Amino acid sequence: MTFSNKVVWITGASSGIGEALVYAYVKQGATVIASSRNKKKLQQVKKNCGENENSCFILVLDMEQQDNYPELAENIINIYEKIDILLHVAGVSQRSSDEDISLETIRRIFEINFFGTVALTKAVLPYMKEQGYGHIAVTSSIVGKFGFPMRSAYSASKHALHGYFETLRAELHGKNISITIIIPGRVNTAISDNALTGDGKRWGKRDAGQAGGFPAEKASKIILKSISKKKKEVLVGGKDLIMVHLKRFFPAIFWRIVHRISPT
Ligand SMILES: NC(=O)c1ccc[n+]([C@@H]2O[C@H](COP(=O)([O-])OP(=O)(O)OC[C@H]3O[C@@H](n4cnc5c(N)ncnc54)[C@H](OP(=O)(O)O)[C@@H]3O)[C@@H](O)[C@H]2O)c1
Questions:
Q1: How far apart are alpha carbons 175 and 171 in whole angstroms?
Q2: How many domains in the chain?
Q3: Residue among 11, 19, 36, 65 whose CB has most ligand 1 atoms within 8 A, to mutate
Q4: Catalytic residue among 23, 25, 69, 154
Q5: CATH of the domain at 86
Q6: Could you tell me which residues come within 8 angstroms of residue 44 by beta carbon, excluding any fewer than 6 positions away?
Q7: Mean pLDDT by 10-residue block, N- to C-terminus, for the chain (264 residues)?
Q8: In 3D, which of 164, 160, 165, 132 has the Cα closest to residue 232?
Q9: I want to staple 93 with a disulfide (CB 3.0 to 4.6 A). Which of 47, 132, 195, 223 is the partner?
Q10: By the 8 A CB rule, do 169 and 158 touch?
């Protein structure tokens, strides 16, 4: 698989799945624009690209500050002339029951996971239409397929991504722009450490479920391959993916066990 001459813009590139995807794409010859809020971490990711360091460019971006997205997209086009793949990975999780989460924190989770993703898509899509091709991949979660304890807002924000991007896929039919929805199960990243508690504070713990999760590097390889094959959806992870199939084919069993699985 070669991605030389491909321009790939990856959000959430400073950590976890997004970071692993930066390494996977530069290794395959792509030019990667790595985005997140933390410039220092992004500089470290760039350095970690080793001999491919010069193929990784840093673009600081905050999913909660969306006004400058059209300007950022225009700058990328001015420099790199195209965007082949927009890969939305940035996101934040939740560690709180619905009873304990404030409306403010729910809105913040939606701002990052849903509205930030939509705003960036809207900034990039006109260029993809003009160039006559493109691929948008968006990172959901298995809890974008079913509700799960201590994830009410997170799960809802990921469900919303399915509604939005499935609609977009239908509307873009025949325009040579593909949409892939990435659906990870538990992957061993800092997602639980960075998750928000009910009052918006950082959870600050690597949950046992997270630590025992699928390796991010392995996940990145599956994701890269699925995007190349223009898959509409890809499930990525270990045993926990079975819950998606149970909900679909054996819902009675699903509802008997979902509340028994540890949310941490
Ligand atoms: N790990 C899992 O088990 C799992 C399972 C299902 C789905 N997912 C999804 O996979 C994606 C990646 O998560 P991960 O597991 O790699 O977690 P992670 O290690 O915590 O990485 C999250 C990334 O999102 C970025 N981000 C968070 N808030 C942001 C904001 N306001 N503006 C810009 N960037 C922001 C972070 O960068 P900065 O802090 O530098 O801004 C970081 O690069 C997320 O969408 C997550 O919901 C993960």
A1: 9
A2: 1
A3: 36
A4: 154
A5: 3.40.50.720
A6: none
A7: 88 98 97 98 98 97 98 97 98 98 98 98 98 98 98 98 98 98 98 98 95 97 97 97 97 95 92
A8: 165
A9: 195
A10: no
